[in-house]
Design brief:
This protein has a single domain, classed as Alpha-Beta Complex (Inosine-uridine Nucleoside N-ribohydrolase, Chain A), CATH 3.90.245. It is α/β, with parallel strands linked by helices. It binds alpha-D-ribofuranose and calcium ion (CA). The site of calcium ion has 9 residues, from loops. Keywords: Glycosidase, Hydrolase.
Length: about 325
């Protein structure tokens, strides 16, 4: 089965790994990439998306999107994790392509309306572009084939605060709109991405299999690996964004639960994703009013990690 996708991204080291999968996997028809601030500023995200497609020898539309959160002040990009250039501060080839003149939200609305029922939105950064697309055309909820979001955390705790995952924390208001919009949505959060580790051996295979793109993936990985060693004490990195594509292409490797999501948008818990399993009664029904979605709670982590390397080797 071929999946026609729009990849919404803030590349970013792990985004780049996922973009490489989207560019190379035979079952993925990459209709375009939309960029957002998050790991980097949106201009750098756009540059990196254009570069990665060119390194893979592909002409893929890239539409620039959100430069800041919907409401809260923007946090500085995590240069200590992804590098100031978003790709581990390695020297990068020049980019010849240019972004679309349309903004990300318009590109999403146009593309989904051209192909009703066929397009899956795969979002692996803060969710401002999807929120803006919903604002532009609320009927999108009935026209997308599905939405896959890398973000959130149900039982795992947070990675930027004790309870919040980065993409949700970066724009909790956009997340609240996107995760409760009523479209078919699967959340791929830290509960599963933290069970996957892309090891140096995996990356050596990837570097050997991807030419100049492999050099960029391996060089940026080296920077990211240092952060994971110091922050989490693991030798490798969690391939967060590739897990979103792993769920789409190999769903049998994941276990999901259906229920109601809500996002805390202010206070100490801002960015926390609250999950009420379908049918569970709580003291009030306010956590069970939002449309049903699926959240990933389990994964065959080693198999997913090996699959990523296999796809890119
Ligand atoms: O929390 C992990 C997520 O935040 C990933 O998408 C990573 O690229 C960063 O954007
Ligand atoms: Ca990302």
């Amino acid at each position: 089965m071929t999946h026609s996708i729009i990849f919404d991204t803030d590349p970013g080291v792990d985004d780049a790994q996922a973009i490489a999968i989207a560019l190379r996997h035979p079952e993925v028809d990459l209709l375009g990439m939309t960029t957002t601030y998050g790991n980097v500023d949106v201009e750098t995200a756009t540059h990196n998306a254009l570069l990665l497609a060119e390194l893979a020898g592909r002409k893929i539309p890239v539409a620039q999107g959100a430069a800041a959160p919907l409401i809260k002040p923007r946090h500085a990009p995590p240069a200590h994790i992804h590098g100031a250039n978003g790709l581990g501060n390695i020297t990068l080839p020049t980019v010849s392509g240019r972004a679309e003149s349309r903004c990300a939200a318009q590109f999403i609305v146009d593309t989904v309306n051209e192909r009703p029922g066929e397009v899956t939105l795969v979002a692996v950064g803060p969710l401002g572009n999807l929120a803006a697309a919903l604002q532009l055309d609320p009927t999108l909820v009935d026209k997308v084939k599905g939405v896959v979001v890398m973000g959130g955390s149900i039982r795992e705790g947070g990675n930027v605060t004790p309870v919040a995952e980065a993409n949700m924390f970066n724009d909790p208001d956009a997340a609240a709109r996107v995760l409760t919009a009523g479209w078919p949505l699967t959340l791929v959060g830290l509960d599963v991405t933290h069970r996957c580790v892309l090891t140096p051996a995996h990356m050596a295979r990837i570097e050997g299999g991807q030419g100049e793109l492999g050099r960029v993936l391996a060089g940026s990985y080296a920077f990211y690996r240092d952060f994971y060693q110091s922050a989490l004490g693991i030798d490798g990195c969690c391939p967060h964004d590739s897990c979103a594509l792993a769920w789409l292409l190999r769903p049998e490797l994941f276990t999901t639960s259906r229920g109601h999501l809500s996002v805390v948008t202010e206070g100490d818990a801002e960015g926390q994703t609250l999950f009420a399993p379908e049918g569970r009664d709580f003291i009030e029904d306010r956590w069970s009013r939002t449309p049903l979605v699926d959240v990933c709670l389990g994964v065959e982590g080693q198999t997913v990690s090996d699959w990523i390397a296999e796809v890119l080797a």
